[in-house]
Structures are given as structure tokens and as C-alpha cells.
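Batch 3, record 17
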Amino acid sequence: MGTKKNVTILDYGLGNLLSVSRAIENCGAQPHITDKQDEIISSDYLILPGVGNFSIAAEELRKRGLEEMILKFLEKERPLLGICLGMQLLFDSSEEQGLHKGLGIISGSVKPIPNQNREGVSHKIPHIGWAPLTINRQESIHSNFLAGADLSEKYFYFIHSFQGHANNYAECVATTKYNEVEITAVAQKNYVIGAQFHPEKSGKNGIRFLKTFLSQ
Amino acid sequence: MRNIRLIARLDIKAPNLVKGIQLEGLRKLGDPNIFAKKYYQDGIDEIYFEDIVASLYERNSLVEIIKRTTENVFVPITVGGGLRNIDDISSALRSGADKVSINTAAIKNPEIIKKAAKRFGSQSIVLSIQAKKNSNSWEAYFDNGREHSGIDAVDWASRGEELGAGELLVTSVDKEGMAKGFDHELIKEISSNVSIPVIASGGMGKLEHLSDVVKIGKADAVAMAHVLHYEHLSIKQIREYALENDILVRPMEE
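Prediction for the assembled complex:
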């Protein structure tokens, strides 16, 4: 087996799993795409990918018994990364096509990105494109996993129509802006991290972000 | 402000990268994976693969090319050409594509956009519109610009948004491969009429064309082929020009 870190990429039928897997390989770790309980539980790291519709994804996770597996994995304080829709699923609820229950790991909710800024200037939705990170350096945040990483003002690829709002702003560890509207880019609660952007699609900085996650 | 995306468009006639003029008269240029990797390393924002013969001969050939691309290309990949149904879309997305673009199948059966958006999310579904100018309007074409639909391209764009497409790829058949500039009137007409992002395609020949299609045409993203494949412009040059001309793009990675 060697000494490579084992990274489980949760397969629940959604998301570009192959690209996430390739990016993890590129970081020097060993990816496993699976929905099998024992593999998830014995893994060093867990990635919850996902694109598409919140309620369909939440339902798939429950139907496959994976919600329980995720919570079980977290009992041992190992790192979890939710990507895009996978990040939104970490919150309590989402307003995408009705009100739907999430995993409730990070306290907060998922709401649509407003279609204009405060000055009334409108913009296209979905928000698709590369945008720079602003790292939240509030003193109340002791454990921002990005604090030591040199990713401030680096560009990442976003594609989304909804965004997470953490109830505790200290859990919003990085933001970006779209037409002056603030977007939660990275949320973190202890070992649980959510990235609204796609690190596996964000070039060299995306790989650096994943390496930072894998060094936790 | 919005950041404009720069997209490399690679037309594929498997196993080769090809380039034509007005979607015809194809020339073989080489291994598409080598081109994709180079564009990634040079800092492109996205890669777009179009299988230009698939819809005509009803076969898929891109899956292997996409899988190989994901080994060393870490930017979004969109795939189009000959995707006929939900299974085709699913296999493209499972092979490493982030988005699929659909033209012919949507003209024949618009409901495929709705179904696909529901299943895979709007952000994965790009409606591809190939438009050709008539006297004072544009008509949507399909089968890679060979067949006309009788549908008004601007109306079709709005309909695509209603059906749930997350993005529109608008190619001017008249301007494609000519390197004489985009049809920015077409792009403007469509972009100002929808609230989803519009990718302009067909016509990039020099730096000023980028400025015109973004500033006059209101394009949200710009696809280019010719100028990159023949190395008339480098991605670095294009980015520097954009930033000097108040077009927001991602700066070069160190």
C-alpha cells in the first residue's frame, strides 16, 4: 500500500468524480471512488463532491445510507471536504426548489445568489467564472485552515446559482465577490471544510488548495 | 464586475484536432490532448471539445479523449457534438466533462434540455446555437451548420433559458474560421435578451476582436480556435491585452 494518504471520493451518482480523482492523484494521494461503508469509514480523508440539484443530492445520500456514513466518519475527527453542491449539503437547509434539509454539519442555510447588487446593477445567473479569494482574518477564527496557505487573492473556478450562509460568520473562512455581491467561498467547522468553487478545476491554485486540505 | 472567461475551442474529428472555415473545409492539426494540455499550461480558463462529425454519422468518439485530458488538465471541460439523449450526456459527464453542449438533439426535441437540466443541474447544460444571418435576423442551424431549422436564433436562446440551460454557446456560422471578428450584433442581441451567460464563438482573429465582442457584444465568455491553434496569439498576450483594456480576466498564474 505504501504511505499514500487514502482519500475517499463519495460516489452517490452525482458530480464529476473522475476529475476530482485525477486532482487527488496529482496531489500525491490515493483516491478511491466508492459508496462502500467499510472503505469510507477506514479512509483518512473524505470528499463529498456534487453538482446539480440540492434535493436530489440530499435524497440520494439518504437513500444510499451515506448520510449516516458521513456522520460516522466525522466522529473520529478526520477531515471532510465538500465541493460545490457537496459544500452546500453541509448546511442545515437549502431553498433550492422548495425548502430541503441538508446534513446540518455547518449551521446555516443555502439561498439563491441575488440577481443584482445593492446599487441595482444586475448580473447573469449562474455565476460562472474565475474569482479571487479573500481570506477572513477575524481574530475569533483560531483554526482557519487557509491561514497559512498562500491562497489569498488567488483565482478559483465557480459555477453556481445558490450559496451557503453560515450562521456563525467565523465559519465563513473565505469569500469572493460577484458584481460586488459577497459570496461564501470556503466554510469551515473544525475538520469539515466546504468549497463553493471547484478546486479540481481551478488549475495550479486548485491543486494547492487540495494539498492544503490534505495536510490537515 | 464580471470576469470574462477565455475558452479554447477544439473541434475534433477523432482522433484529430481539426479546423475549418465556416464549419467546413477541415484541416487536420494533430493530437487534441497535446493541444489541450498546452492551453491549460498556458493559462486558458476552459476547454471546449466539439465532435464535429458525431451528429452526422451518429456516433460518439470523444469519451476517450476527455478521459485522457482529465489526467493533466485541471480546468473545466465542455463537450459537444452528437449527444443525442440522457445516456450520452451521462457518459460524457462520467468521463470527466463538466458540461455538455447540445444543439441538434435540442432542435429536434427541446424537452431534452429540460430533462437534462433537471437530472444533471442547469450548470452542466449548455445550449449550443449555430446562427446564420438572414437579411435582418439570424436563423438557428444544426448538424454543424449544415441544416437550417427555420427557428429564429434569438427566440431560440430565450427558449433555451426557459427550458433550463445554464449557459449559451453562440457560434456565428458566417464568421466561424474567418478570423475577421465576431458577429457582435448577434451576440449582443442574444446576451441582452437572456439572464444566463453567453459564450461568443466564431471569428477571433486579432486582439481588438475580443474587445468588440465583450464591450459591444456583451459576451460573458469568448471561445477561440484558429488564433490559438496556429499560434497567431498566445493566451498570455490575450490576457495582457484584456487587462490593459479594462476587460476583467483572471491574471496569469505564477
